[in-house]
């Protein structure tokens, strides 16, 4: 069986370091490994509209931003096809047929969707499109016959939903669709990077992000203002490193070389953590190291982004080409789906 990746992001804001460690970094590694037959990267604008339908201009503007973020971290259109979801009407058609294979109760049980409904105050006025976005996500994944979906932890319920729909479809209409599996980051701190405010998830919608495109000054300001351990009042107090986002970010980003360069009194992060836990290490020192690590990591990404942003029309040309290719692939899957469902009445007249 072909090894195919599908993954993507909602154009609801610029991409941040949570996306980077949760998914982007892995995608670039997978892309460059040469182990995959095909890599599809989708900018999920139709999904973004399910909770931003009143602000299509925001979604539109962020398609460009997300595309720039992709190219700046090393996604390469020669190796990965980058496309825009709404260009592919076939995805909507697949969604319509898959809707029959899911119950309302099942959709309401999805823990990620539940949390997002609460976060967006949708309890009293839930758009149907939002509730059903996991079904449309199944269409996105299956349209490309993807077996591998590199994502952050919050996407696990979506993958479970997709697998259920695929099994149900294949059981009813015959083996047609591929059951996808999620690939999570191996580092625990990267599964769901917390926000700079200590909230459970760094999220574009919560404004607690360090963006890949942030200037050196913005990065510094955000790192220095980060939430730490609220009980670590004096330098001499013992501190907690487990629920402390500064240490979680160091877990996600710091390498031993960083210690040699910026905090040579420690051989590695474990030594620094031990010092903080027993007391005697101030937050300021931790933040200074974190700032140095973040600056070193993000500087090349930001520089590449500024270079690519000089030619935005070229970015849209790339998106158009990718979207046309994706459309052709999804159309082939839709044909197979309609054939399996025995609703391909006019297939021989094409
Ligand atoms: P929104 O608030 O609009 O939903 P988001 O920040 O959650 O935005 P998405 O576009 O929904 O971003 O997610 C894109 C990918 O990034 C998904 O695979 C998701 O799991 C991953 N991701 C998002 N936030 C984080 C995070 N804080 N840590 C790790 N992975 C993340
Ligand atoms: Mg999200």
Describe the structure.
By secondary structure, the protein is mostly helical. It has two domains: 4-192 and 311-349, HUPs (Rossmann fold, 3-Layer(aba) Sandwich), CATH 3.40.50.620; 216-306, Orthogonal Bundle (Tyrosyl-Transfer RNA Synthetase), CATH 1.10.240. The chain is built from 15 helices and five strands. It has helices at 17-33, 45-49, 56-73, 89-98, 104-108, 111-119, 128-131, 133-143, 156-173, 216-224, 245-253, 256-262, 269-278, 283-308, 312-340, and strands at 4-9, 38-43, 81-84, 148-150, 181-183. Strands 1-2-3 form a three-stranded parallel sheet. Strand 1, helix 1 (17-33) and strand 2 form a beta-alpha-beta unit. Helix 4 packs across helix 8 and helix 11 (245-253) packs across helix 14 (283-308). The longest helix has 29 residues, at 312-340. The two termini are 28 Å apart. The mean pLDDT is 96. The structure holds adenosine-5'-triphosphate and magnesium ion.
